[in-house]
Design goal:
alpha/beta, 9 strands, disordered C terminus
């Protein structure tokens, strides 16, 4: 996105923030006029999404007027194969040498069967694994396709893995009934959380309750966390707007891979720009912020030494996490994949260690 367009959108946001609707309208017109000069259709659409979000903010419209498109998984799953392959490599690495593994999936928008079919496609080597149990904890209505289920079964058979799975509906991830998971002795337990934590930050103590349950009740060996790497949880609207402009410009740049997922990103932009308070559910944080929070709640980084190449985007591993980089002129982290274990010393989970 060109700097003159960024300038116009930022001035429009500033005018709204300081109660000058006439100037906001003028800057909106300027931004949309300049958008016509953008050569890439994806960038032009992105400018339109920010303009629509600013208009919604100006008129006080909230998420009920532009709810997440349905079915959500139709958009979520598109073009995410590379990310699933990364998660698959992480999981296969942390379960090396284990015969029986129980993976607990916290499902927000994804077809869990399709996600795991993608993971199996990407990962052939599962070492000594002979039995895999998948528990899909579903908080919202998500369509799990029969076709994906059959694909998942066949892929497990090809890898000589005995597969067991079930879907468990929950009211909230913060109040999971652990008895429904039927925890068994001798199983290596992995919790996989893809883009779940950031959406819990708008609910008071919800994430803290989940982390305490994972740490103290669920007997988890490793927790996989995948999140956006961006500072979109600032209370200052103008700072949040500026960061979101630059973040999504990187996603919609020259190496744009997620065109079919645009309804998902459009919803995020509308939500974080137009909404405040509990209506703002898209609360992405940076890797440094997540690291500090997870250490505070008694987790430490599970160092993985995976070496692989992904043809879809650039990856960079440092500090125990894998960053996925995108951008047109300058690469920046947009997502991260990390693995965590529970600290053995209870004193570390008291919150005194800020990391």
């Amino acid at each position: 996105m060109r700097e003159d367009v960024v300038d116009a959108l930022k001035k429009c946001a500033e005018a709204l923030q300081y109660g000058n609707p006439r100037l906001a309208n003028a800057q909106m017109g300027r931004a949309l006029g300049l958008a016509e000069g953008e050569t890439k259709p994806a960038t032009r659409r992105l400018i339109g999404y920010f303009a629509q979000a600013l208009a919604c903010r100006a008129y006080g419209l909230h998420p009920k007027y532009f709810s997440f498109p349905s079915p959500a998984c139709k958009y979520w799953m598109c073009n995410w194969y590379g990310l699933f392959s990364t998660v698959g490599w992480y999981i296969s690495d942390v379960v090396k040498g284990k015969c029986k593994v129980h993976v607990i999936e916290l499902v927000k928008h994804m077809d869990g069967y399709k996600q795991w079919a993608s993971i199996f496609y990407a990962t052939d080597d599962w070492g000594d694994l002979t039995h895999l149990r998948l528990s899909f904890l579903v908080q919202e209505k998500v369509e799990f396709s029969k076709e994906s289920e059959q694909t998942l079964i066949l892929l497990a058979e090809d890898r000589h893995i005995e597969l067991e799975y079930k879907i468990i509906a929950v009211n909230s991830f913060a109040d999971i009934d652990v008895s429904l998971l039927e925890m068994r002795d001798g199983e290596f337990v992995v919790v996989n959380c893809m883009f779940v934590f950031s959406k819990m930050l708008s609910e008071a103590l919800a994430l803290e309750k989940l982390l305490q349950r994972v740490r103290d009740v669920m007997r988890v060996d490793v927790m996989i966390v995948v999140e956006h790497d961006a500072n979109h949880n600032q209370s200052d609207f103008l700072l949040r707007f500026d960061e979101s402009l630059r973040y999504y410009s990187s996603l919609f740049g020259e190496d744009y891979l997620f065109c079919k997922s645009e309804p998902y990103f459009r919803y995020q932009i509308w939500n974080m720009v137009a909404c405040e308070g509990s209506n703002r559910v898209e609360r992405h944080q940076t890797w440094a912020q997540w690291k500090s929070l997870l250490i505070h709640y008694g987790f430490s980084i599970f160092n993985s030494f995976i070496k692989w190449e992904n043809e879809e985007y650039e990856e960079w591993m440092e500090d125990g996490i894998l960053s996925i980089l995108m951008g047109e002129t300058e690469k920046r982290p947009v997502f991260f994949v990390s693995a965590w274990k529970i600290l053995t010393s209870p004193s570390k989970s008291s919150g005194s260690n800020e990391g």
